[in-house]
Specification:
408 residues, alpha+beta, five-stranded mixed beta sheet, eight-stranded mixed beta sheet, 15 strands, 12 helices, 30% helix, Glutamine Phosphoribosylpyrophosphate, subunit 1, domain 1
Length: 408
């Protein structure tokens, strides 16, 4: 824990207000000509609480007055367990039907089924829990915490995760799609398989020779067993981002939220609907400890959004925390992880014209002293992240490793 010294006067003053409005550290007088005063009594001060998350933690309020970082920070400063506070924060975008990358209304898999992933880590307890490919529960973060609290395991997936959630009393719904997420899925189907999935108002429904023929290319092949389908599926999704139909953040999904309390306790949570229109059963980095999230209460925390496969291959969140253990700042540790990802990205399909990754990935990093950073491969798409301190909730700019964007 960081130990800083303040005067008796400032200590008494700070005791009359909440931690969220704690007074700045006093500077000891240096002027020997100053009037005589009582000796200074130095006392230790606690860590400044901090909550950091991706932009979803700022943007969505689900009809309320607080976003995720505000709620989490308020609960932490009111004395709630840090992990409980963070999960209460991410429950806001999980339940918000306007957020298409997380929880209820998250963009579904290729079969139109919403499958959710989440993980959480409790620093002081050194415990963790996660779920993957969970269907029918709007708040997978709470199920991940139940795995942590009630089982000897770190990860449950698929039908087993759903059965566990049912046994723990969670409501299981038949379908977590909203009308918007279902409409977007239909548009994706039309783009990836235009010969079979038609736009009811599109040109292919109009009379005349060759109508729709320009779109009915190889993408019209049957999807099962078609080796070209994965690349077309990804291309169709990215085209919807370029056309403004979905946000880049919704396409990749995910909110990561990490926080430190006034006594130095560190926790983290990540929750997502995963890559939009993924192969059913696909699991990204979010529920995997060391990839989508890693917490060490003596060092710090790191989490991620963006291309999960790149993060999985490099176990980047674990790498970031270990780099901070060796003395790196949050920013430098995050940049080192981005450099590792860049060096290990060698497949032509994953490179742009400059030979750099053609995808984005972002890290949210917090250390034991309450210092934080948001870093990204590119400052593109979602160029800001959310943070809440005693100064309130605000956004900050990512520090990019590379200039431009992934398509540059």
């Amino acid at each position: 824990m960081r130990t800083t010294m303040i005067t008796r006067r400032d200590f008494v003053k700070s005791a009359s207000v909440s931690l969220a409005a704690a007074t700045p550290l006093a500077t000891l007088a240096q002027n020997t000509a100053a009037p005589a005063r009582a000796p200074e009594v130095l006392v230790p001060r606690t860590v400044r609480p901090v909550v950091i998350s991706d932009y979803s933690g700022w943007e969505f309020k689900n009809g309320g007055t607080e976003n995720a970082v505000q709620r989490a920070f308020r609960l932490i400063t009111e004395g709630q367990d840090v992990l409980d506070a963070l999960i209460a924060g991410v429950n806001i975008p999980e339940l918000d039907p306007l957020e298409n990358g997380i929880g209820y209304g998250g963009l579904p898999n290729a079969d139109g089924v919403v499958q959710l992933d989440s993980s959480c880590m409790h620093g002081p307890k050194k415990r963790a829990g996660a779920v993957a490919c969970l269907e029918g529960v709007r708040t997978p973060s709470l199920v991940a915490k139940a795995v942590m609290d009630y089982t000897d395991h770190h990860l449950l997936c698929g039908a087993g995760a759903q059965q566990f959630a049912r046994a723990m009393g969670f409501t299981i719904e038949d379908d977590l799609n909203t009308e918007k997420s279902r409409r977007l899925w239909r548009e994706w189907k039309r783009r990836v398989d235009p010969e079979h999935w038609l736009d009811p108002d599109g040109p292919e429904r109009q009379p005349g020779p060759g109508a729709g023929g320009g779109r009915a290319h190889a993408a019209g092949a049957q999807l099962l067993g078609d080796p070209g389908w994965p690349s077309r599926a990804l291309a169709a999704g990215r085209s919807m981002v370029r056309d403004g139909l979905i946000r880049e953040g919704s396409f990749w999904g995910t909110i990561n939220c990490d926080g430190i309390g006034p006594n130095g306790d560190i926790c983290g949570v990540t929750t997502t609907s995963g890559l939009a229109w993924k192969i059913p059963g696909r699991t990204g980095d979010s529920p995997i400890l060391g990839a989508g999230l890693y917490v060490d209460n003596e060092v710090g925390a790191a989490g991620s959004t963006g291309r999960g496969e790149a993060n999985l291959y490099n176990l980047s969140s674990f790498l970031i925390v270990e780099s901070m253990r060796r003395g790196m700042s949050p920013k430098d540790a995050g940049m080192a992880a981005l450099e590792r990802i860049r060096a290990n990205t060698i497949e032509a399909r994953l490179l742009n014209a400059k030979g750099n990754p053609n995808f984005n990935i972002r890290f949210f990093v917090l250390n034991k002293r309450g210092e934080y950073a948001g870093v990204a491969m590119y400052r593109a798409g979602e160029a800001q992240y959310a943070v809440c301190t005693e100064n309130g909730a605000q956004t900050a700019e990512f520090e990019p490793l590379l200039p431009g964007g992934p398509d540059a």
